[in-house]
Fold each of these.
Amino acid sequence: MNDQGRILKFQVFRYNPQKKGDKPRMVTYEVTEAPGMTVFIALNDIREHQDPSFQFDFVCRAGICGSCAMIINGQPTLACRTLTSTYENGEIKLLPLPGFELIGDLSVNTGKFMRAMSERVESWIHDADADEVDFHRLEERMDPDVADQIYELERCVECGCCVSACATKRMRPDFLSAVGFVRLARYALDPRDKRSDEEFYEIIGDDDGVFGCMTLLGCEDYCPKDLPHQTQIAYLRRKMALVR
Amino acid sequence: MKVIYTDSLVIGGGLAGLRVAIASMQRGVDTIVLSLIPAKRSHSAAAQGGMQASLGACVKGDGDDEDVHFADTVKGSDWGCDQHVARAFVNTAPKAIRQLAAWGVPWSRVRQGDHEVVINGKKVTLTEKADSHGLIMARDFGGTKKWRTCFTSDGAGHTMLYAMDNKAIQMGIPVHERKEALALIHEDGVCYGAIVRDLITGELIAYVAKATTIATGGYGRLYAITTNSVVSEGIGNAIALETGIATLGNMEAVQFHPTAIVPVGILTTEGCRGDGGLLLDKDEYRFMPDYEPEKKELASRDVVSRRMTEHMRKGKGVPSRYGDHLWLDIRLLGRKHIEKNLREVKEICEYFLGIDPVEALIPVRPTQHYSMGGIRTNATGESPTLQGLFAAGEAACWDMHGFNRLGGNSVAETVVAGMIVGEYVADYCGANAVNISTTTIQHFMKREEKKITALLFRDFGENPFQLKAEMQKIMMDDVGIFRNAADLEKAVEELKVLNQRAKRIALRNRISSSNPELVEAIRVPKMIKLAQCVAYGALLRTESRGAHSREDYPERNDRDWLKRTLTTWTDASADLPELTYEDLDVMKMELPPGSRGYGVDNTFHHPDTAKREQEIEALKRDNPGADRFELQEMLNPITIPDKFKGKNERIGRGFK
Ligand SMILES: Cc1cc2nc3c(=O)[nH]c(=O)nc-3n(C[C@H](O)[C@H](O)[C@H](O)COP(=O)(O)OP(=O)(O)OC[C@H]3O[C@@H](n4cnc5c(N)ncnc54)[C@H](O)[C@@H]3O)c2cc1C
Ligand code: SF4
Ligand code: SF4
Ligand code: FES
């Protein structure tokens, strides 16, 4: 890459539902590329120098917090860790993540969706004694491998890419989605959670749950944390089929 | 006027804020949490390395206990911390981590038998005891005598924050997301909540409460290059400062982390060096042992950052278009270890640098990382000057970190402070009522409305993005790792000018609802004031202590500077804050000031130090039968809620 930098063309979805009379539209911005430029850097550049009303969400800007998922050239992904140099022709089209309430421009309300998901799968350790635990004493032991396996499923950052990539979710608005499945699988695996298979069945044993999934695996393809959706969905299905 | 009443208002949904909210709720106190963003996205999630707690389960943690953790923390702080608070902290940290284990954090566990590690550049085999199998594991971190930093692979902060937020969801604690606190409501020296802006609709809401806790994290974004998130802008500190009553403590104490990647400033965790990674210069030469023969790469953060800067100043940096940097080498740890315990680091290198750290060197440079300063509180977490205002976590100067905090002690602080301060918040809510007139609430509401209206109607003026960039550059260039009077004077003067200019911000996008430019316009004047507190505090502190390093005053000066800086801004039209100082009482210290063991010790000693040492010796002599708990009680009795007073059990040692 030379020092001059090429001109990038960003085609961006703009719409502010808070503003009376505003209409959804695509707007093009040109930005001079710099070495190591990410979509995060480019969007801030546009906001600071071209249009200060431009809305989008970044927090960690390091691919850790899950705030910045959007559709970049047709694919859901984390914008903060996407280098502009990935796109050879320098044309980058940005759309807000579908499947979530639009706040404005590229900003969507994933927070609200994820809190509802957590409430629905009861995303916490179910153990009446957890609050009574005597923290002066040694902690309960855990098999080191089990701890590692739980962590593998807990790496989800609630970015919503899997939700936006899911065809079933588009047809069934109440479909729990892959993020809910991995969350549930994480608790099903955890020996500290005392829920029975029947109790898990109550949550996901229907067509809005794991039996609605068509295993097209958009979720696995687009999960930025590479969570093993396929194996987890299969695992939950087997487990739930036994209860049914 | 929209008013929402609650008992315990918590501003901030990171680890500290959530833990305070949980404590309030557990005690039956009505609680609301406010956050700029969904709680799980708070910057606490970014902590990769881990949490310090002296469990002593792994073989390299053998012999660890509260006392060792205490000594490390006090030395790390360069004796700038409050030793009562540090004591309360180390005694509670094991309980905090065990409670989190019960709440769902999948801490990495000890595996019995042999495992290979890298220590001082060499492969070593360690053998874990069968007794410890399945207990919580720990890793090595800078400035610690034992392996004490407990972790979940490379996602400690993430798993802690998820467990904490899930607990809050289980308890039905409302988190009002996309809300920004703009000002505190107070009357007659008592705080009653905050004026809050809805970041989507732009509506202003008065949240009126008995107790208000600020847990808004650090102020790293005062600097152009920082490891902190884009929302770590110190607004919680600023709104406390703007009351003119609450004080900020040690704002000049700013930590630089040795290893953030160049140029973007994203952190690679201290776990890299803890697990055996090395620092190399342009000749791929390992230089740290030359400077710090004992601790090498694992000296305290402030020390490593300064040594790296010194080495680069000698021309040993690797030149790049973004300025000089050094190399972090983790190749020797091997693929398996990196892909399991340092995977986040690997992802960061792949995505942001396009390199694989299993095979390539990582370009790193010391970068702004942590704010030791914050809202000054007493040991209960309450502001000593503004009643009903509490603070916890990185936003607070509870003061267990003094002038340099140890890696792993910060997420530990958030949770421990959350537990302790949360109890005092609940006590306070039980004992107090909301005695505030509607006129006062209206007054604060109108004041904020007026400011926003003025911004929306001004036709010409300053650009807030531009002002922020100028401030960040001043802080980088003149208030950085090494400081001196000339640079600091220049910074103080330039920031004064920015402060004036920030009074004339005008917007291009003049709408009151969701509007990033308006958000910036509201925050930037506040940030500039904080920057002034940092720069002015640094100018007046004519010594070097911990992360505050003056080239023109290289000695730690206990004689004149064993004090905490307190900053207030009483006159809103003044162009500088007011600074006063609070002495640290050597005669009450459990560990009187000594040498940290880095470089030459050129401390100017405090006249009381020798006296206190003798007093401690005498006390030990007179109480030959006293165990370590009794001695601590005599030397450093602490304020702590009863439920946290018990002793901690350790494997192979019981409650001793
Ligand atoms: C990259 C990185 C790695 C780290 N690694 C470690 C580590 O390994 N070990 C360790 O001990 N420490 C580590 N730290 C430090 C540690 O993570 C932080 O100090 C700690 O998590 C801060 O937690 P907190 O709860 O105080 O604040 P945060 O987690 O920053 O939360 C702040 C909250 O306040 C809210 N907020 C802010 N302003 C407002 C406002 N005006 N109105 C309403 N809400 C507001 C935000 O929305 C957010 O919810 C690391 C820090 C960084 C930057
Ligand atoms: S497998 Fe397909 S249908 Fe099932 S959750 Fe994933 S994307 Fe949706
Ligand atoms: S499962 Fe993957 S894609 Fe889905 S929310 Fe979690 S991290 Fe994102
Ligand atoms: S901003 Fe945190 S993942 Fe992109």
Amino acid sequence: MRGREPDSAIEARGVRKKYPSAAPEERSALDGFDLTVARGSVHGLLGPNGAGKTTAVRIMATLLDLDAGEARVAGYDVAREGRQVRRRIGLVGQYAAVDEELSGLQNLVMFGRLSRLSPRAARHRAEELLEQFGLAETGPKRISAYSGGMRRRLDLAAGLVVAPQILFVDEPTTGLDPAGRRDVWDAIRILVDGGTTVLLTTQYLEEADRFADRISMLAHGRVVADGTPAELKARVGSDWLEVLPRAEADIPRITKAVRRWASGDIRTVNGRVRVPVLDRTTSLLGAAAALQDAGIALDDLTVRTPTLDEVFIQLTGAAATDDTTPADDTQKVPA
Amino acid sequence: MTSRTVTHDRPIDRLRRALADTWTITLRELQHWRSRPGVIVFNWLFPVLTMGMFIGLLGGAIGAATGSSYVDFVMPGAFAMAMFFGLEATMTAVCTDASKGITDRFRSLPMSGFAVVAGRCTADMINSLVSLAVVVTAGLLFGWRPDASAPAIAAAFALLLLLRFAVLWIGVFIGLKATSQEAVAAVQIAVWPLLFLSGVFIDTATMPRWLRAIAEANPLSATATAARDLFGNPGFAGESWFAENAALLAVAWPILLVLVFLPLSAATYRHLRR
Ligand SMILES: Nc1ncnc2c1ncn2[C@@H]1O[C@H](COP(=O)(O)OP(=O)(O)O)[C@@H](O)[C@H]1O
Ligand SMILES: [Mg+2]
């Protein structure tokens, strides 16, 4: 029972959603949401609280109706072919929970049965998943006795009972300590290696940076940028040298000494001189030598790369102040 | 990785799947009992405790007034009360599932939507059967005796379970509508005046006239009065149209409630997608 073998696992075009309980003057939760996720890839949906990530996932998982636009998952229309979609997706998120009064094993067997596995297959699959997620020993215990990390791994396992083609993972690591986050990521990596398409939402940019093949940045219900992590970083600008002088009075001399390596305007931020550069090593070595020749005492000299945080602040900051951006004005990164 | 059972889509297979899903959900509820035996046993004993309190408080006064045994009078009312208390159980369970994301988990699975509610319904009816058995046993221990033929007794129990079935749909509806545990708590409090404003524990003849009419129209009174009659237990002479037609109302009220709240519940469930 395969899907219709579409080119992309997920296709959303111009999706709009306003909750009936929202006040008339309130913004729509999704306001012309576009998304394309290639089969077998890990796609990060990034955005601050309230950006619309959960709303988008709920619509694609057929839990919520859309007001306008179209969304296809595994080639099936979420509005008209919900049952076909539900057979091919797994869902992990706070709102697609497990039953805390049952054991991990009872939960997984139940979801297996409800996903049309035979009693024996459901049991077998549950044990297999518990083993895979390092929960073999805790499996027979009640979920309410699980630690945060164990609990989240069980959530993941619950989303995987029928080996979905597409897995939605909504903020899997929010509220976990570093050890718990690592556990969850190890678990997600198992899936990705197995060829599952993963759509993952997160507020943690470094996670998306490390795990996602592509990233869509969401602000106010609309994708404001998408591309690979490297492409997005490239949009904010190049690498830069960061020079921290011992004495602030030296700043004009520093600016003069390093000017020949600058590929753009040199700026001073919090007493640090930022020099945009094209070639990391050559400029670092050259600038270091020039600063030494000039006899300027430094506390620090590093070469920096923009982080997704900076991309995000730049893009969503712009989106937040520019309400008049038309829906089709999505800033696409040339691939 | 996993072998999926072959997909059929003939109506008979869909029905079979819906029934299998219903049983899976029912089983989940039964597993809850095992994981929290204290809570479930307390729920079964609660009507007995309430009933014991009323026999202690009112038994002397009312027994003396009616010249018959208060226990024989009150037990059918206590059975109706036990069924009515099922409202809280259903409502709380539905609300918890919705607020904790279990309902959404079910909705994200390729299962039958009918089964989510049908499983709840089956489990709650089983729960109430046990609850009823517990109160009946307690009643027998207190000295309650039915004085009627077996078919009449069976009919009385059928009316009690019909009331439970009606109350179940009110519970599902409120549980889906309630956005918070506070809303549930409010309904839990509202249950008590409904219980007292009825002929469950007391002879409505002692009430002021206007209150009496309301109490006799209460669906709980209808079931309690009709059950008393069928069990051959002493009742009170009602004076309103409602009291005189208790047997009819004990059937009509629950059916009316189901006709209202079942479609409302179904619509609310569908509107979770809004
Ligand atoms: N059930 C709901 N009813 C009304 N408004 C909602 C509901 N869920 C979310 N919203 C609103 O929709 C917007 C997007 O929310 P959400 O999709 O949860 O964002 P995110 O997951 O990115 O934090 C927010 O403004 C939020 O307040
Ligand atoms: Mg969210």
